[in-house]
Amino acid sequence: MSAPRIPVVLLTGFLGAGKTTLLNRLLTRPVMADTLVIINEYGDAALDHRLVTHAPEQVVTELAGGCVCCALRGDLAQTLREAHWRFARGGRRQFERVVIETTGLADPAPVLRTLATDPRIAERYRLACTLTVVDAFQGEATLAAQPEALLQIAAADRLLIAKTDQAAPAQVAALQALLGRLNPFAQQTDLQAEALTPALLTPPGTLRLRSLPPPTAEQVHAVRSDSFTVDTPLAPERVQAWLDAWPTVAGPALLRMKAVLDIAGEHRAQVVHGVQHTLYPPDSLDAPANGSTVVCITRGIDATRLTQWLGILHTQ
Ligand SMILES: Nc1nc2c(ncn2[C@@H]2O[C@H](COP(=O)(O)OP(=O)(O)OP(=O)(O)O)[C@@H](O)[C@H]2O)c(=O)[nH]1
């Protein structure tokens, strides 16, 4: 009898929707022991793998600098093909399941196709479930403006609604109704209200993959990712001025900002997230920063304004 195939969970959702936050919650569950996590990031400076807290029996690896749905599809296939010996101890495979976190701009359909049709992958792996995280607060506006978000909704077996604590109940209800129209097959879960159970990692019914027209080349290619690094610790008042100036760049053109900051006098790295209009309060990592990196993923932003804003961090 051949060995059972390894289940793969595809975790997707638009930039900043809450994928990594969910992953961190999931990885603390016993059901997620022995998990290989593959994190794909759009920016060339990968930060997400540093933001994922995991146990020693979990392996986290990253694919950065493009999307697994296009530029890095071959890299994903190679990672999966090689994983059983690359992530092995004493000749024994170190994982029993795989979670792939896509970039927030990925179209899940080509990734699902690779999983299903590459014979060397399909013989070892099986798709267990596609989870799409949706931001309760910004979800409707994102869906109206960002074609990739629609593709992610369409591919979902489960729609996981994050940030319901930030949205009014009527806003959540309107989003749920919209999601129900866009993908009536997917089960909707409010991540704040419901416990994360193993059932979340399995599809609610038969797996269905529906196709929507892909975004046009123009829509995809107008996206750019810029990273900005400073090697020396940042003065706290500079960081505060930079945070205060967030409204000068915030908006739909700033799809995502992620920063790991090395602030003078702080022993631990500080993490700051921005998603379109929203800036989240800084958080600390359990590790020193050794330099600061800010990644901005933008579509049609005023570059001068962005540069001025970033400049606040290190201007003498
Ligand atoms: N209030 C609130 N904030 C949340 C929730 N989920 C995520 N966030 C915050 O939203 C910001 C972005 O969350 P991430 O988990 O990094 O989002 P992501 O989808 O992984 O982002 P990308 O990897 O850039 O696509 C962070 O500051 C999180 O703390 C939630 O349920 N409630």
What is the H-and-E element order? EHEHEHEEEHHEHHEHEHEHEEEEEH
Number of helices: 11
Strand order of the largest sheet: 3-2-6-1-7-8-9
What's the total number of strands?
15
Radius of gyration: 19 Å
Q: Helix share of residues?
A: 25-40%
**Cofactors, ions and other ligands in the entry:** guanosine-5'-triphosphate
Query: Which CATH class of the largest domain applies here?
Result: Alpha Beta
Under the CATH scheme, which architecture of the largest domain would be assigned?
3-Layer(aba) Sandwich
CATH topology of the largest domain: Rossmann fold
Please state the overall shape, judged from the principal axes of the Cα atoms: globular
**Quaternary structure:** single chain
| Low-pLDDT regions | 206-215, 217-221
Largest sheet entry: 7 strands, parallel
The average pLDDT is 84
Separation of the first and last Cα atoms: 67 Å
Q: How many structural domains are formed by the residues?
A: 2
Structural class: alpha/beta
Note down, in words, how this protein is organized.
- The chain has 316 residues and is α/β, with parallel strands linked by helices.
- It has two domains: 201 residues, 3-Layer(aba) Sandwich (Rossmann fold), CATH 3.40.50.300; 90 residues, CobW-like, C-terminal domain (Hypothetical Protein Yjia, Chain: A,domain 2, 2-Layer Sandwich).
- The protein is built from eleven helices and 15 strands.
- A hairpin with an 8-residue loop joins β11 and β12.
- α6 packs across α7.
- It is globular.
- The termini are far apart.
- About 5% of the residues have low confidence.
- The structure holds guanosine-5'-triphosphate.
- The site of guanosine-5'-triphosphate has 21 residues, from α1, β11 and β12.
